[in-house]
Description:
The chain is an all-alpha fold. It has helices at 2-5, 25-42, 108-115.
Amino acid sequence: xxxxxxxxxxxxxxxxxxxxxxxxxxxxxxxxxxxxxxxxxxxxxxxxxxxxxxxxxxxxxxxxxxxxxxxxxxxxxxxxxxxxxxxxxxxxxxxxxxxxxxxxxxxxxxxxxxxxxxxxxxxxxxxx
Length: 128
């Protein structure tokens, strides 16, 4: 679909179209396809190495209907979007590191309990 999405305006990061849903249906789809392609090209990194992609096999019947586990929705990459498939990352895998000893330090629950606790009722005066 990159050929079609290149027709969409390249406005992400400059002056994004804030009311894309008010465009005619086809123009809205083209705009979203262009935004998606621009995000993939500039912001997201693949979360798999070349040799550890999950695999899925699709039958001829899978062309006409989705599977419950999400496989075969994209026949070029049958496992993409399926159950357990990783999302794209904002940091490349080779630059990321997992220090599991500090994963919950400080504990997010403790921080939430200390910062978000309310001792009295504080009404939201701007709502309703």
